[in-house]
Model the fold of this input.
Amino acid sequence: MATPLHPLSPARPWRARIAIAGLAGTLIILLLPLGAGFLGTVLPAFGILPAIGTGEVGLTPWRDLAASPGFATSLRLTLVTGLASTALAFALTVGFFASHRQLLGGRLAEALLAPLLASPHSAIAVGLAFLLAPSGWLARLVSPWPSGWTVPPDLVTIHDPWGIALTIGLVVKETPFLVLVTLAALNQVDAPSILRTGAALGYRRRSAWLKLVLPLIYPQIRLPIYIVLAFSLSVVDMALVLGPGNPPTLAVAAVRWFNAPDVTRYPMAAAAALLVLVVVMAAIGFWRVVEMGLARAGRRWIATGRRWHPAIELGEVLATGVFAALALGIAALASMVVWSFAWRWPFPHRLPVEWTVALWTQQASSLTGPLINTIGLALATTAMSLAVAIAAFEILENHSFALPAVVRAAALPLLLPQVAFQFGAQVLLVGLHLDGDLIGVCWLQMAFVLPYVLLALADPWRALDGRYARSAAALGASQVRILLAIKLPILLRPLLIAGAIGFAVSVAQYLPTLFAGGGRIATLTTEAVTRSSGGDRRVVGLLVTLQAALPMLIYGAALVIPKVLYANRRGMAGAA
Amino acid sequence: MRPGLVLKSVTIAVDGRVLMENLDLAIAPGEVVTLMGQSGSGKSTLVNYIGGHLDRGFRASGSVHLGGRNITAMPAAERRVGLLFQDDLLFPHLSVLENLLFGLAASVRGRVARRELAVGELARAGLSGFEDRDPATLSGGQRARVALLRTLLARPDALLLDEPFGKLDPGLRSVFRTVVFDQTRQQGIPVLLVTHDGADAEAAGGRVVTLA
Done:
């Protein structure tokens, strides 16, 4: 060879270096609260807390935690509700897709799934609390006939000591999410022809789906399942609204101790928060092991060649469970809307005896603050997340980084329990005088909004035919022009949908808002959770209605805007 | 005669595998050189190398010259090398006219002048009245013609054709081929045509280079 081969270097290496450095710097700043937060949880958990000068380094916080009343119950409650709800949501989803070609004919499904996906967890929890409460809609449905109740029955439904209401709440909120990600995964495989092949070999739909389709798509839904698992084990807002009060789940206990006026509880709170993290990691590991065991058993089952197994018929039951979960969720939200228009609604009336719109006008002034905070935070975090995501994808793509690896790394914050970071992050904000400040809340929320936006945008971005950009470059267009005039307009729909998801995630944030806001920044979500116990149900109904309606509106706009803008562009109709 | 597209001892390797070694090639203005070879022989790699679209991970040496300029290290957008693929890749969010205006060299100034020029070219290509059409509603042959027009309006100094006739049906294919080669000859553009199809090479009528 005459000359040595050289790698192809970018035409403007310094520009590339600046871009990559800028991106890395941005990500570090955005993720700083996680790192600082972790440190601020680990140190006190081992007695290192200079601020209150307990001084004694050691395992005392853990001993205190283990000796605290109800600790064992808390731990068991956390594990059971988290694992059971995730396993149930997954089983329902699998049973459903094994049994049905599609979801109620597509359209209706979208209409049913969208409100549940877009609504904050706390909104669904508060709605369910009313639905399931002794004085709630379900009890009213059977009263006074046939139950004979004229006053609310003396039953423990929500806040039950076994965490059943909490488990139901988690299943209702997470099943739609798993259905959605499964639908997305199914788009990547040719399930119909796989099932046809199976049928030609004598396998009926459910067997063929379990043996042939599920193994293909599982790798793609694994990460979402782990996210659900991590969330369910560490959720605070839903557990406050639906879970048992004494003893509560670990995450709730940690938050309670953090907020206790007695600062000596800090180390124990930190230990509890750290334990939640350990529980989450252990649960994910446990799930992985079970996964591998089931996969092995599944392969053996496939090799037997048996075309049918009685257990398969369970699929229909599970599929019905999906409808039940959707119905509960929708009814929960609907009940809140009804409450917001109720003037008088005594038990056991199924609907209000007197209706009014007065509440909406009366409360307008007192809810303006939380509403504006909610919208402002959501818009700011969404816009920043979109900008960072676009810059990240553009830079990484131009430098041939492996996008999937980067996106997986970005999803990491979603696998970590929020409670394990919030306290330490609050310390960081106090140090920077950003506590109780919208900027601080924004910063803390970013660590959770950005990963969802990145995840939502990654596939469409990768799916965009790279030859469009090449054609544009061959026509003399610069990188910037290609991005602004070609890539972003073609990706408009997925961009808006990613934005809508980011918006919904921001609206739903409870812990980051609570901690970074130092209790001084109220959003619809913090208000709804605070007022859910003991507050005026009509005001709570109003709050939850707004909480659910806001993300829905944005989601609707994300679907409609591209349709209007590209009404005459058939090539854009199905674009991602 | 002014120099066309010149490759000087181009060697390209990927993952330690050498795709081509010390390839020298000169394509005069208006000349069409056909590049043939089996799949995986590096035809498209060479096209991407010349156009400046090669993914990182490839290693190369040698140089590319166009109209006397050394374009080896230039970004794709500054090379003035046009590119046509098997798929027309009309931008789906733009109308036919907007696609052409995106391509039309910025040296043509004035909104009205640019529009008139593009509309005129469209008419000459037998597509008058198609300005505001959605590209997705055009037939395959019409889309191919718009894509060619878009490429030529950018006034490239060279044209790379990566199996551009592959998806057209046989009748349309020969018509479109004639249109392409007439245009490039007329405008004195050196053309490198990558194809599997012997008939394409015959129609091009020029030299045939085969990559092993």
